[in-house]
Amino acid sequence: MSGGALLVAGTTSDAGKTLLTAGLCRALAREGMRVAPFKAQNMALNSGVTADGAEIGRAQIMQAAAAGVEPEAAMNPVLLKPGGERHSQLIVLGRPVAEVGALDYRAHTPRLAGVVADCLADLRGRFDAVICEGAGSPAEINLRSSDIVNMGLARAANLPVIVVGDIDRGGVFAALFGTLALLGPDDQALVAGFVINKFRGDERLLAPGLDQLTALTGRPVLGVLPWRAGLWLDAEDSLDLLSFPSPRADAEREPLRVAVIRLPRISNVTDIDALRAEPGVAVTLATGPAEIAAADLVVLPGTRSTVADLAWLRRRGLDVALARRAAAGGPILGVCGGYQMLGGTIDDPVESRAGRVDGLGLLPVTTTFAADKLLGRRAGTSPHGHPLTGYEIRHGRVRVEGGEPFAADGCQVGPVMGTSWHGLCENDAFRSWLLADAAARTGRAFAPSGVVFADVRAARLDALGDLVADHLDLAAIHSLLAGGAPPGQPTVRSALIPPVVPAPVPSPAAVPPGAPE
């Protein structure tokens, strides 16, 4: 018997699809259902690795954690990782298969639609419910013909659709109505209701608008989710970085300052989630030399385009700022692509095809890019005796030619450290050591908090589940999962739906002589 499924679509990117999907997974799992998340096609620079070495979107890994299940490639069968303005790496079932442009990608969609359909059917055969997440907006009419993640998926699998809109942006009623109105009649038939996200204030003030929206569309508002601080989890794309939270103030002491260099193609920025959860630590995104000089710890993160972002770094004078910082004893941590930049040379015939370029020369390592990608979860012990777990996603092969051993395959020279492993700061003992070491090197007082990051993440997922359980009509959700979209829903007229034009009535002057009047 096939399990139920529904699609969470949104009026825009960052409307709340990812968190609503995670909240539904958490709430339904707590009811005893076996739930799986699903995103047919994801475009993101933040990814992770499954137990069998498949690369999928980090958001789907978070949603699987919300559901209490192990993430797998079927939960995100198609992943696009942008490498520039017009091209992305195409990853299918966890493995890279091609570099594609925006127009080239459409040629792949017929085959990918079959992969997506097979994965969704497989999940529905093994789980009680599958909560699918759309991408961007379902009303991107320029892309509808090749859509495999929004209404294209819903039509192919006959999924009921709920549309979420972010009221904090303003114009939510126009966005919800307009999204529906831009869909064709067969697509509209699957839209079963709306959800309003990030509401602040007294919901009674919203009630007249909710009633009018229902009257205009024939669809109910299934919930109004209030705005909640502290629900930030696993940033998925560049829009999440635009809303990077301000550091928390500490009335008793100045926080330890961590500056993360905001590379143009920054990837796996989730590496710093655990640092942001640490009391007494202020994490900011840095793009200028002054921010690097002022920080107690600088993180040079991963990137989808190591050579291109290294050139950007040099154009902004950040190479000089990092060299001065290292000479002055200021701690620097490079992760994956950032680690490669800190080395002596990079030979890249794969990503940039630039060949051999000079690195920053702050660590005695050389990097050679290979066509095949290293993917896997890792475990080990740091030179300081801390147990470590992490994961690798990289084309670059790093050869260490000196320095002291650092975490995993990394090396260290004085205050400069590098590693190819993502997720190291989620190891609580290692994170405490890293921050205490940075404080000692910069003459700051810092006492590790003892925060257990796994508990922080679980608490946030529980908060999402509570939000959905308390403010969403879960009975209606169960009905949609069991029976699909209600039949006979009205069609909202739009420019895409030709109006009924009555036959022309001839004027009296046009009536032929002798014809009956």
Describe this structure in words.
With 517 residues, this protein is α/β, with parallel strands linked by helices. The chain folds into two domains: 4-232 and 459-483, 3-Layer(aba) Sandwich (Rossmann fold); 254-444, 3-Layer(aba) Sandwich (Rossmann fold). Helix content is 31%, strand content 26%. The protein contains 16 helices and 25 strands. The protein has a seven-stranded mixed β-sheet with strand order 15-13-16-18-25-24-23. The chain has a six-stranded parallel β-sheet with strand order 2-9-1-10-11-12, with helices on both faces. The longest helix is centred in the first third of the chain and has 22 residues, at 105-126. The relative contact order is 0.13. Residues 508-517 have low confidence and may be disordered.
Span between termini: 65 Å
DSSP helical segment count: 16
Helix content: 25-40%
Mean pLDDT: 90
Describe how the helices and strands are arranged.
Blueprint: E1 4-10, H1 17-30, E2 35-38, E3 41-43, E4 47-49, E5 55-57, H2 58-67, E6 78-82, E7 87-92, E8 95-101, H3 105-126, E9 129-133, H4 151-157, E10 161-166, H5 172-181, H6 185-188, E11 191-199, H7 207-217, E12 221-226, H8 238-242, E13 256-261, E14 266-267, H9 273-276, E15 281-286, H10 289-294, E16 297-300, E17 302-303, H11 306-315, H12 318-327, E18 332-335, H13 337-342, E19 345-348, E20 355-358, E21 365-381, E22 387-400, E23 404-405, E24 411-413, E25 416-419, H14 428-441, H15 453-471, H16 474-483
Parallel strand pairs: 1-9, 1-10, 2-9, 3-6, 10-11, 11-12, 13-15, 13-16, 16-18, 18-25, 19-21
Antiparallel strand pairs: 4-5, 6-7, 7-8, 14-17, 19-20, 21-22, 23-24, 24-25
